[in-house]
Model the fold of this input.
Amino acid sequence: MPRQLIESVPNFSEGRDLALIRQITDRIESVDGIKLLDVDPGRGTNRTVVTFVGGPEAVLEATFRAVEKAAELIDMRTHHGEHPRFGATDVCPLVPVAGITMEAVVALAHRLAERIGDELSIPVYCYENAAISVRRRNLAVVREGEYEGLKERLRRPEWKPDFGPAQFNARSGATAVGARDFLVAYNVNLNTTSTRRANAIAFDVRERGRIAREGNALTGEIMRDERGEPAWIPGSLKSVKGIGWFIDEYGIAQVSLNLTNLGVTPIHVAFDEVCRRAEARGVRVTGSQLVGLVPLRAMLDAGRYFLEKQQRSAGIADSEIIKIAVRSLGLDDLYAFKPEEKIIEYAIAGGDERGLIDLPFGAFVEETASESPAPGGGSVAAAVGALGAALGTMVANLSAHKRGWDERWAEFSGWAEQGKRFHNELQRLVDEDTAAFNRVLEAFRLSGGTEAEKTKRAAAILEATKTAIEVPCRIMETALASLAVLRQMAETGLPSAVSDAGVGALCACVAVRGAYLNVKINAADLDDAAYVDEKLAWGRKIEEQAIAGEREILAIVDQRTRNR
Done:
């Protein structure tokens, strides 16, 4: 994957003809460096949301090819669907994913919009962060009147497109190109077929709310502000857009939400609020649906939220936290929710090469025993340390669920989450240590007889060797930190699991001492005396602390074991 990553999420006004959709996605995949993450067609909305990532130039090219193909295949004159729309490629937001600023993505969005307008003769409006006019920042304002009102709108000077001709393109309509932060399209399923009730709930929760009326909320006279504009009653959720609709495909009404800032309103908060507002209107929520992809953080936050409500420890595997989120949000109400396809980090990593830590334990042992010099002592030290920290996490989780200790669940959940952070980091360092060793080998393989080439080789060896020292240093540091969890569990954890805390302490100390051996052997031939002296002195101090910590924990374990 390129160092700079952006995501493109074009929405096409076709959700029923899968062969047509495939022709569009084939054009996307024809560009080198693009990874297609998700294709989400909807029959009722007659709309398909496509998600793909790649480097900036590759994404621009793939997006343009997709818009070009959609203009060729989709005729807006015959299009009908539940979702608001005004073009064959209705909206096309670009999203920064890694190594790139929003400002840079805005510039890319303008380049894309200009090319669509010039080469395809499609009117283009820029919205969200890419908006050239403040008035056009909100997509709902840009798309007001939809396709049916577009011809008349284009005649008005104030609605001249940002790019492309100010002429009605009957076949393709118009396209909105934007730059935005990660947006989650999220639908909440209701046990009703009433669009009116779904809309009422959407108006209750969306930030914009509803128009204020005197007396009857539906038929009363519209109230106006001091400028004569309709007055609005804000909804209960910030950074949320929403409408209600009926989806014939599933035979239900939904509250359809766009969560535009998960830091302000996360998925689980939106879900609970819709549940509360629905119940107040005599409607029940039966589940929910994520359209497109969702960040891992959002799913983990949701899972932890529901675990906290149950007073259960959150220091468990991410996969288990995600299962809690899926069940609590009812994300498999309409169809199976597949984390490897719907969570963006998992989808991006899906085709990547697996590391040592992904191997079954037996295969890891066999790989260690093979003729290859890596994985070696550093990776094994990290693996042993991870097992030690995991034992501390286990004791914390068992303690959090002990009968009679209900009031202490949060205390032990906090320790379990600390332990989880340590064993996750040590697992990551298993592969990082082997990668660092391989970089040293690559540096030694550099060839060339000129002075410049020899200097380059020496510099590469020095840099790679320092990395091969820094990685086991991090193993030492992390394993030593994990002793705090193990000590606490030895002192206050479940009495029947105190021996597990002791074994964990032994593992942590082995990890520190084993990693220090790696530091010493890698430093042996390094031509930087000051650096070597500093690292060895630091390492001796960490080793001494680990040995002392292990001894103290084993004394606690011995005392509690004799008292049982």
Notes: Residues 5-179 form a domain with the Formiminotransferase-cyclodeaminase; Chain B, domain 1 fold (CATH 3.30.990.10).
